[in-house]
Amino acid sequence: VLEERMPILGAYRVPGCPDQPYQSITPVNGARLVANCAAGSSLALLPDRNYWLDLDGEGTVTEITALVQP
Length: 70
Prior knowledge:
Strands 1-2 form a two-stranded antiparallel sheet. It has helices spanning 2-5, 27-38, 65-68, and strands at 51-53, 61-63. Strand 1 (51-53) and strand 2 form a beta hairpin. Helices cover 29% and strands 9% of the residues. By secondary structure, the protein is α+β, with helices and mostly antiparallel strands.
C-alpha cells in the first residue's frame, strides 16, 4: 500500500542545467536542483526521506524511507 501511495511525478526542464534528477529524488531536492541551476544558488542536497502521516489514528508521523526506496 505504501509504494502505491508514495509516487510523485517530478518533471524538470531547466535549459543548460548539467545536474539531472536521480531515481529516488524527493521534492525538496528537486526544488534545490532547479534553484541551483536556474538561479545560481548553491544549496546542498538534503537526505531523500519519505514520511507517512497516519490520519486514522493520532496523526503520527513515521519515516518509511527504507520501505519505499530501493
